[in-house]
Design brief:
There is one protein chain. This protein has about 450 residues and is mainly beta. The chain has two domains: about 25-130, no CATH class; about 140-455, 7 Propeller (Methylamine Dehydrogenase, Chain H), CATH 2.130.10.10. It has helices at about 1-10, 25-35, 45-50, 70-80, 90-95, 120-130; strands at about 140-145, 150-155, 160-170, 175-180, 185-190, 195-200, 205-210, 215-220, 225-230, 235-240, 245-255, 260-265, 270-275, 280-285, 290-295, 300-305, 315-320, 325-330, 335-340, 365, 370-375, 380-385, 390-395, 400-405, 415-420, 425-430, 435-440, 445-455. A hairpin with a 4-residue loop joins strand 18 and strand 19. The termini are far apart.
Length: about 450
């Protein structure tokens, strides 16, 4: 009877609202900003008024024909506040300069620049508000492999399955994340207690941002405006880095020092896990305040996220201290609903040395959301499960102490950091077979993949 009541309550629970579309920074920089500089007959340029009138544009340097990267990011942070993502006709930025007869506002102090919604400039702004993106010119997919006992990060080209570059001068690099526009790489630097900013073109460190304590893992907001850094040092926090000013603007208090931090697929939340407190802390990404917490029976290790049809977060898949497998947390209900133990192959001896309380430490979900990979340090392997039913598909041997996992945007291959053999192992997601073993640095752990801008 109790189960029937629960089922009825769940069935009556309203569906979560659709996830808000994200705004693309590269599109803004390369397509929208030139509109602010355009001279139209009988009108002043947008920049002439808005360099001193809200919403502000950054002042141009004498003789400059455009904005610097930092200024562009500040412009983006300002002007995205004056649009409604996914809805151009309700966005003040598009309505103020549009003729009233075409659906615009009655008055705009800067005049009416567009007579109709078919004007090419208006259409460009509408495309940005509707989340259109710009293909990255000169962009290339790369896999970044940090080396936990080293001072470098290896850059792997998935086309050749080989190391094509090395990022140096970061001692004990922990977490790594690629900016959505591909122009920067963010690395948590344990030795210096900083977030190191790497230029994607030169692969050189261009800025070191002081943090509130020793960092662990990092992630970046979907619009690229903030980077979130898990602080492992007691009492624990999530530092918020503003990418326009490249400064630490807030430290969000959480329960326990943080091991890993993630931005959910819809961008609405930042999820941080504490080993010491066995607690998941969920932060509202709009306000950077703690929304809710969930304490489980063991320390929180790596996490991954499944999605509802509307893109909102459905489940947190979480690995736990001293557990060979993973737990499933219902995100809306805020409770654990299932645990799955990885298989123990008959006759195989467990690896017990150097586990650091984590026999399973690495998760990745394919871009189509249909398959989950999890690592087994006990048996030197990775295990594939189908989603959403969590049916075991295959176990693949990869080497001693497999750790972090990443999957390239095309979903073709899984990259496994094999910490005990100083290699990154490549598994074909279709055949579920090892296709390449790539030598990297000392004790490789965290990794990430995405598009880097090269020009």
């Amino acid at each position: 009877m109790a189960l029937l009541v629960i089922a009825l309550l769940l069935a009556q629970r309203p569906d979560p609202p659709p996830a808000a579309p994200s705004l693309d920074y590269v599109f803004f920089k390369e397509r929208v900003q030139p509109i602010f500089l355009q001279k139209r007959p009988g009108h002043v340029r947008c920049v002439t008024c808005h360099d001193h009138r809200s919403p502000l544009l950054q002042p141009l340097a004498p003789g400059a024909g455009g904005w610097t990267e930092e200024q562009s990011r500040r412009n983006f942070a300002m002007w995205k506040q004056f649009v409604v993502p996914g809805n151009p006709i309700k966005s003040p930025m598009l309505l103020h300069p549009l003729a009233e007869a075409a659906g615009g506002d009655r008055f705009h102090a800067g005049g009416k620049h567009w007579k109709s919604q078919s004007d090419p400039e208006w259409q460009t702004l509408a495309a940005w508000v509707s989340s259109q993106t710009v293909p990255a010119p000169g962009g290339a997919v790369r896999v970044l492999q940090t080396n936990a006992a080293g001072d470098d990060i290896h850059v792997i080209d998935p086309a050749s399955q080989s190391v094509v570059a090395v990022i140096e001068d970061i001692e004990v690099p922990h977490g790594v994340a690629i900016a959505p526009d591909g122009t920067r790489i963010y690395v948590s630097d344990e030795a210096l207690t900083t977030l190191d900013v790497v230029d994607a073109r030169t692969l050189k460190v261009v800025k070191r941002i002081p943090l509130s304590g020793r960092p662990n893992n990092v992630d970046v907001a979907k619009d690229g405006a903030h980077v979130y850094v898990g602080i492992r040092q007691p009492p624990g926090a999530v530092d918020v880095i503003d990418t326009a000013s490249l400064s630490n603007v807030k430290s969000v208090p959480v329960k326990g020092e943080i091991h890993n931090v993630y931005v959910t697929p819809d961008g609405r939340h930042v999820v941080a896990g504490s080993i010491a407190a066995s607690t998941i802390s969920v932060i509202d990404s709009a306000t950077h305040t703690l929304a809710w917490t969930l304490t489980l029976s063991a320390g929180i290790r790596p996490m991954a996220f499944t999605r509802n049809p509307d893109g909102s977060t459905r489940q947190i898949i979480v690995q736990l201290s001293d557990f060979h497998g993973f737990a499933v947390v219902d995100f809306a209900a805020r409770k654990e609903v299932r645990r799955i133990t990885l298989p123990d192959p008959p006759g195989e001896e467990k690896e017990t040395q150097g586990l650091q309380g984590s026999p399973s430490h690495g998760l990745a979900i394919t871009p189509d959301g249909k398959m989950l990979w999890a690592t087994s340090k006990y048996y030197h392997s990775v295990a594939a499960y189908s989603l959403p039913d969590f049916k075991l598909l295959k176990v693949v041997k990869v080497g001693l102490h497999p750790d972090w996992l990443t999957i390239t945007p095309d979903g073709r291959n899984l990259y496994v950091a094999v910490a005990g053999e100083d290699t990154t192992v490549v598994v074909d997601n279709k055949t579920m077979k090892v296709v390449k073993t790539i030598p990297v640095g000392s004790v490789p752990k965290r990794n990430a993949s995405g598009v880097l801008r090269t020009n």
